[in-house]
């Protein structure tokens, strides 16, 4: 609080408070000097040529994160609710599913789906002639499927805790008002659980974004695979990796910022 | 349906997973052993970095604290796969440059050593945060009392802070162990033959993808479920002497 207090009084300019200690100014100078040195000394001549490809890769990373996280959350709400309040015949499979997903590496799941299904589907001539085939032949559906299933497993566990955390009184009050079960879920249980889980989900979204480069191993063209391609084409090793790190740091920062805004917009009053 | 049965419940699954050479059982278990070795090494290295980093963050000067903050923030914001590549190249480069000072030729860093080094640095950032939180949960009076008794800092850490923070640190550290066992799979991308890579080699050779990936999944599951049981015991041991929380815990 001590460091943040004066900055808030100055009028929301925390940068000044951040830079007040002398050592921070020195460190920032060193960091800027290092950045300038890397801009001047390292070889960035490949950058303009690959810029369109990089933009395409960043776009893939972004939509993969957003789409798989959203689909995963939809599944996770079901998985979490089944475990928190469902009957045993629903709770058990949900728990087993979450354990399996969380107990095995995502890379293994991804390769199982891509190579396994990829070798499995072509055995059916009917499928090869169907309108689905052009999609099934691509790599991205498997990437979306694997990342979605993985997100569902991890977020299902988060949602289980969140559903359990909603105070009993809230649900009892709604029942006492004669609220139908589905309305109770939609109006009381789900919003409060989501609100509780929001900080965790923010962190989980960053983790999900951080697992997207794995799709490069099944030939999806994301930011990571573009950087690897630059290295293969030009034999430049470090510069693409530095760029990669910077891009991912920026995306992670944007995700954190987005969730902070979202949390600030929701009413903070809770029972 | 016939082809489905022939594919999934392939009659040769037992043969494929057999121990001796026509089967790939020994290869998979060797891969699992490599994974466990790297995970153990990286976890230990991460713990060492984490303990140092956490004490630095809590008790260090302003410069050290900011440097550690930069380390944990950067490592936690960049995908592990990217970090593994950066550190792998940088580490090999650095080792070779140092060795060149003594007129040795360039060496190829062994896969296990590189894997441990790389994953250890990544783990270090996460365990720094876990242990820092645990240190802050130690009642201040305990540390003050030890200081008042004239205990030197290292002995204070060994006798008071570390044992008392264990209970708060174990759940987070257990989580980190599960993460590092799964992160070893990422080394498959740089070509190191741990369980996932061994599996993909076996699967690509025999074309029995489902059989091998499912078998590897079972091995990973056994590893993580077994670890959970062990960590449960460790947590109970770390919490010995604590008053049980009514209604808390799992």
Write a structural description.
- The complex is a heterodimer of chains A (271) and B (250).
- With 271 residues, chain A is mainly alpha-helical.
- Chain A has helices at residues 4-10, 14-18, 22-41, 47-85, 88-103, 106-120, 125-129, 133-136, 140-165, 168-176, 181-211, 223-234, 238-265.
- Chain A has one domain (68-270): Orthogonal Bundle (MetI-like fold).
- Chain A has 13 helices and no strands.
- The longest helix of chain A has 39 residues, at 47-85.
- The radius of gyration of chain A is 24 Å and the shape is flat.
- Chain A starts with a helix and ends in a 6-residue tail after the last helix.
- Residues 1-11 of chain A have low confidence and may be disordered.
- The radius of gyration of chain B is 22 Å and the shape is globular.
Short key terms for the protein model shown above:
heterodimer, A: 271 residues, mainly alpha, MetI-like fold, 13 helices, flat, B: 250 residues, 0% strand
SSE map:
The complex is a heterodimer of chains A (271) and B (250).
Chain A: H1 4-10, H2 14-18, H3 22-41, H4 47-85, H5 88-103, H6 106-120, H7 125-129, H8 133-136, H9 140-165, H10 168-176, H11 181-211, H12 223-234, H13 238-265
Helix pairs in contact in A: 4-5, 4-9, 4-11, 4-12, 5-9, 6-9, 9-11, 10-11, 11-13, 12-13
Chain B: H1 2-8, H2 13-16, H3 25-59, H4 62-77, H5 80-101, H6 111-136, H7 140-148, H8 153-183, H9 195-206, H10 209-238
Helix pairs in contact in B: 3-4, 3-6, 3-8, 3-9, 4-6, 5-6, 6-8, 7-8, 8-10, 9-10
